User: Fold these one by one.
Assistant:
Number 1:
Amino acid sequence: MEGLAYSPVLLTDLYELTMGAAYYRQKMFAPATFSLFIRDYPPHRAYFVSAGLDEVLDFLASLNFSQEDLDYLDGTGRFSQDFLHYLSQLRFTGHVSAIPEGRLFFKDEPILEVTAPIIEAQLVETYVINAINLQVAIATKASRCVHAAEGRSLVDFSLRRTQGAEAGLKVARTSFLSGFDGTSNVLAGKLYNIPIFGTMAHSFITSFENEIDAFRAFSQVFPENTVLLIDTYENMSGARNAAQIAREMAARGHSLKGVRLDSGDMAEISKKVKAFFDAEGLKEISIFASGGFDEFKIAQVLKEGAKIDAFGVGTKMGVSADAPYTDMAYKLVKYDERPVLKLSAGKKTLVDEKQVFREKRDGKLIKDVISLRREKGSGEPLLKPIMRHGERSEPPDTLEAIRTRFREEFEQLDDCHKAITNPKPFPVELSGGLQNLQEEVVHEVKEKELGES
């Protein structure tokens, strides 16, 4: 089977290249600014978590067309030799301002703005959206699970059902960024220095003649980190066997770390298992639960009084099952010093280069104001200059630093905006300068293109 290696620069939609060829023919090389934003919230969302920027910066910094890429494009018969020669020398030379990873942002706010010669800025559109759309969706979903868990530990169990291996790595990274404690994904642990967790599968239990023999074998190999899966046959029978193993381990100077529940009525079962362990004098055994969890199920079982200390969160988080995409767009907002916009119904864009100012009071976020980049606003400016002339402005943040940034800002967002269902929208306003310019450009466009006075 052939490998899956590919040139990232060709991971694009054809029309990015055909537009580039037309720009080239028209000698359009002036600076253009494109703004990346999300038009609206998926159901039960009222915020987003910034993620994926580091990947985008790596892509931009290494942008180039290899001879193999150019030969392929030449073979399509669509592009002139002059344009292909131009592409052979093309590198990203532009500027990027963005909201750093781990910070919160809201609909219509630019998460990232790219300013570069228009061919460069246009060509990167597809990759930028692809990289950031998934990671924002997952980071936001994971943060909702963190909120629902109310301080309990969460582990990413999603790898086997994510949409491909690359997605599995991104899910592990972004869920950790958003407050998860670790992942079952060993490669992600290696690449990103994320703690790795795992227990055992039902196949391990059924491969032994008796459940307790499987438990005993595992505890002897991993005496410092034994978590036993107790529902292969019946939860309370499994709990009784786990209690026996706990006593055997204690006699050897070790302790049973926990048990895992993976099926059934989690609230009811966890209460029974907890009561049994308490009665046996084994109060220190943690109860870990997996099996179809996301923020909705976590919130529900805790409302029902579940005695669960930690959750393995898999498929529904790893594919953001209830909101698997965002309505993310990358739109031209300025070309050759001329502010531009789109007036399509339901898809109107905001003109020009922008900044977002975040206002706080008493340690809480109170509102954001989307402004023109050149305006001075009150509050903290969120978009930072992270790339200049095609090079990073500063070293990348560590994942731990991004995780800390998220935790600190998430604590500042009122719970009404983090509600699992029907959250209250966060206040976002347009500055006076942006409103005025928007109205001017709308009037100009309607007069020129639609004949309206």
Number 2:
Amino acid sequence: MSVMTAPRISDEDGIIRAAAAGDRAAFGELYVRYARLVHGILLARVPPNEADDLVQEVFLRAMRQLPGLRTAAAFRGWLSTIARNCAMDYFRQARPQVPLEDNLTAHDSGLDGLEVLDLIRHLPEAYREPLVLRLVEGMTGPEIAHQTGLTPDSVRVNLCRGMKLLRELLGGVEAK
């Protein structure tokens, strides 16, 4: 006769549940684990100088809404959705634009990082986030897959196709 045991709760599930119950230290741990993911999602959508502030906004929203999350397993996707919604909200609000300084460093392509990031934003949606998570946030393919919920093969394909399109865009841009 076999003995039924409760399913083992992962470390991450425990942290998510503790944070939902109001444990600030647990929520801080979630921030450490997921800030790069949120930052990458935002960089794929909003001006780079706004991304850091919006990361904070995403986590503030998440902290307020976390007690309503029904299952800890949904956390990663739920947080990603909050980040995407926060980016959409950014564009709904009128914000004054401040010109960037001219002392940004140039790369071999003649473009600076902000210009390349702008080119990435013109790629299809499926390629934007994986490219930003890889090129800006420094995540590996398996890390991207784990954080986004995509399969490793999907991440590999999206990165490969996204890089091909980015190279084509970079080839069509005249060097400064």
Number 3:
Amino acid sequence: MTAKEIIAEIKPLGSENYKRVIFNHGVTEPCFGVKVGDLQKIVKRIKKDYQLALDLYDTGIYDARYLAGLIADDARMTKKDLQHWVASANCSPLCATTVAWVTAGSAHGWELGREWTESKSPFVAVAGWATLASFVSIKDDSQLDLPELKRLLVRVQKAIHESPNLVRRQMNGFIIALGSYVPALTDTTIQIGERIGPVTVDVGNTACVVPFAPDYIRKVQKRGAIGKKRKSAKC
């Protein structure tokens, strides 16, 4: 299938009600308001398609871009592809999901995730922290640079409260991911999370709640789920 054919297929599936919901979460035009469940049906049919994913992303339509991430062949994504995706992303939800998931699954996740966290652009920084959170959730601990992850934690501790609203939220998510998926750093993340204290984020007109990282990690501990990796960051 071509990107044009996919657009023609998903456009009628859009819902104004759903569109209003995701706009409250930061999604912007152009957007049809297609539910993820409807996009997942197309994913089952297409599976992976590297070129189609690139073409869909370049339409600039949020729903098509989200779908692009779901069908992207992460292993084939080049650094140039990923830099283009993050540079042209026009909303935080896209950076925190599509861009981050695909980058984490690529051969460039660790490098680009760290690079992007240094960006002055809130969207790019969001993608950076979200990429690192996804990276630790899917990679075996033997593939992780624990000393560097500790340094990143210290950096978060120093900077989180002064960081932009969108970035604070992703930094908090990074702490939670690190504590939940990397057993060697669980105690450290809880300690640092306690020093940081609650993280205040303006979630706009949504019912979202920003969890207190230590409490969240302790709940994962109580379930006996610390260190249980995900097969894929995508959902």
Number 4:
Amino acid sequence: MNIAQPISADLQSYLATSRKLLINGELVDAVSGKSFPVYDPSTGQVMAHVAEADAADVDKAVKAARKAFEGGPWPRMTPSERGRILWKLADLIERQSEQFATLESLDNGKPLSVARVADVPLTVDMFRYMAGWATKITGTTIPISFPGEYLSFTLREPVGVVGQIIPWNFPLLMAAWKLAPALATGCTVVLKVAEQTPLTGLRLGELCQEAGLPEGVVNVLAGYGETAGAALAAHEDIDKVAFTGSTEVGKLIVKAAAGNLKKVTLELGGKSPVIVLDDADIEQVIPGAAGAIFFNHGQCCCAGSRLMVHKKIFDKVVAGVADQAEHIKLGPGLDPLTQMGPLVSAEQFRRVTGYIRSGVEEGAEVVVGGKTGSDNGGYFVQPTVLTKTSPTMKVVREEIFGPVVCAQPITDEDLEAIAREANNTTYGLAASVWSRDISKANKLAKRVRAGTVWVNCHNVFDASLPFGGYKQSGWGREMGEFVLNNYTEVKAVTTAL
């Protein structure tokens, strides 16, 4: 084990022990006996080993979840009992917040300071928020066309056994986004964590048992997408699959789910515009636009990767964002001075650097950044600002998922024209509009085809706010009341009186 920064003896011991899968309430090795290495992205060195799930383990976990759903106590508990267990789980995570933040920083590369104030608190809040919803999932009575002859009402029931596949950019938080609403509705779950970042998801599974979740209700598998993920998406005894990740893989999930027509929700990629109108407050825009793309190393599905600035203030805004980028300190996540960590993996490093090269080859100009690497072999890429970009370039059309922003001037004054340019993408996950004129900003927000539009801010999240995309950014919504639709069936009951 080779880690860039010192960690506690307890955590060293935790990482030195090969981590197991959680199936039917027990920590077990993979059926094959295989394990895979987990890498510290700040050094590229192995820091842990985790049991490698494949189709056989998926089948075991699905059987356990099916047994827990059909005959176990979880779906039959009172909603208040389920809510109390979810609240207890939130308390346990909060008590272990430093361990979770450190594991998240080690696993993903993000600064420990960010994990402490964002990833872990938002995870705790998500479980508490959904604990409250457990008692508020209700049906309605419906007056039909035969008054006095029939009583008709609806029930909302758990969809059943759910397969959930989460990404590596916010490993703990994405687990919470998936698990909390599924559990609040009474579903049972097989959760497949990303092979790049399995540690916090597996630790969360352990706390699920400690919180009192019955055996088989939550099963946590670590493995590769091509094996464990594909087997989970295609499994005939899964009632619904929920996936967060790239649009390309989302399309594969849909095809795999077609066998038994399982329900599917997808939270996919984005190419989100940051639209800066000529009357915007430049002092507010510059840090806001920089944060929109450089937060979490740009590895956000809603990253503001297209910076669209009115031509009157284009040069000032680009210069300001470039200055912010130039002063971001890169380093290992556990270094208290680090403001941006490494990318998550060697694969992601190759992807992002390949896009930067492609942009330059197609005529883009690097204002700042573009350089890579570090003295200790980590997957570091400097925050990068590109100008002289055009809508036909790969860097503008495709999701980079790294700290790279493409800046382009807005030359039109008409809101419809600006919206058409912003909407000129296959994605529709998020956007932000920056203007002192709130009326104009909100008129433009209505014209942007995206699931989330921020006004004079970016990357603002709350458990109560729905999140999801238009077009090829996905199906359905995460968080808020709307996510309950993902995990419930509506049944109409009519009784003759």
